[in-house]
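Consider the following assembly input.
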Amino acid sequence: MSKVLLELKDLTIKFGGVTALNGVNLKIHEGEILALIGPNGAGKTTVFNVVTGVYQPTSGEVLLHGKSLKGVKRFNITKMGIARTFQNIRLFGDMTALENVITGTDVHKKSGLLGGLFGLPRARREEQAGRDKAHQILEFIGIDEYSDRLARNLPYGVQRRLEIARALGTEPKLIMLDEPAAGFNPAEKVELAKTIKKIRDAGYTVLLIEHDMSLIMGISDRVAVLDFGQKIADDLPTVVQNDQRVIEAYLGVPSDAS
Amino acid sequence: MFDTLIDQFWSLTLSGIALGFIYVLVSLGYTMVYGVLRMINFANSEIFMFGTFATIIISRDFLGNVDGSKTLPLPKLLLTISLCLIGSMIVSGLVAVFVELVAYRRLRARGTNKLATLISAIGISIVLSEFMRMITHSRPTLNPRILEKKSLFEIAGANFRIDTVLTIVFAAVLFFVLDRFVKFSRLGRAIRAVSMNEDASKLMGIDLNRVISATFLIGGMMSGAAAFFYTLTYENTKFNVGFTLGLAAFTAAVIGGIGNIRGAFFGGLSLGLVEVYASAVLGTQWKSVTVFVILVLVLVVKPSGIFGEAVQQTRA
């Protein structure tokens, strides 16, 4: 098996009396699509928030390439190669689609205040390079035709895809998608599945939260299941699909078995 | 009643534009900070005030321009103007960064509400002006004349004095550079990103504290530039020079739509013009009254200003 990119080690988070995550162990390997599923409130988004540094774990840790992310500031986590999208769209509404993606590419630029103020050659070169790259990413995601439109005026489906494009702008190793298919019709879901596979095939690692089972089963290399903050399964999609505990978590325990 | 206005219309328009550009630069200090923090930086008037003193100290004490009746030789004049402008921008910029570090940053880190920050803003504003009052014993400080206020040319009765032209040209250039910077540079984009969505901007690898410091620095520098032009024109300052001017600039920002850079441009210019026209019609004693009546009217009729978001919609 390929190298481990991200590892959650015995991760526990408590908010007051509520245990959101309880001793979760999870490994994400380079170049795979790992789906994280589970009933509402199982702790999926909490995992995203811990990995991106929004919450600090109560115990346990998150390792990227074997290095602990403990105490690393949020913006530095992005620089280290972790990007995410949100369940509810959070674009920069008054920027064009292109500018949204350029803002992502800015993270690795070096020119400072003076370069920007006076338009020094290096700043200009970087600016142009960022523009070109942003166009490439929009092209890759299939929405380059919208590049000059303000993000807030874009159709819903395009906004969702733009969030992915913007995340890719930061040149992540791991991209985490929080319910990217929310609100999509079946045709759009098929498109999205293709895009996510394309992202994986381009060399990114994908961690995916999703509720749509056919989408998950169609594209995931592996599926991990959370229930009440605990991992109850972690295997190939076909195996997880038939796991008794997973079925119980989703459907409840049948009455004749209790 | 309207005789003066009609007789001197072009002359008034010219001085209205010059005054308007000073408002534009100072209101940028309010508007940029508001954009990223959704907070009114009341200390901006004191940031401006420090710039006026910086100008006088650089010209009078460092460069020895003590005798205002003598005309400065051209090289010395150019040196004085550039050093005073840059020095004033740097001093005001640094005071602004200092204000943010001392009065706002800790409150922000603790997640206190905006009201606490607002009171802290008023507090630091009083501290800065009282500090200057003690040093200057509440007396006005004169700036020995740097520039002989010669007329360059006259069009339709409007007298294009050299200080007026300098103010308009430099302020317009500064505004243009700033506008381009915010639109087309990495830091400018980060400033806009933070103003639109703080959470998402962190995920784009934007260091919020650094962006906020930069915003205060740039906003302060614009107020500092305004302070230089003000001192060049009016040739004196006082510890409370920023008070009325700051409120007027704030009004200008609200007219244009606070948080919006181009709004500050139109707000500043229109307020400068209205103020000058109103003084001509009603008398100069009505100047401040006009400004604040306009502020109240804008807040009542169109709180979002010409270009901006509604003030009441902002995060509380």
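The domain at 3-313 of chain B is CATH 1.10.3470 (ABC transporter involved in vitamin B12 uptake, BtuC). Ask yourself how this observation constrains the way the partners meet.
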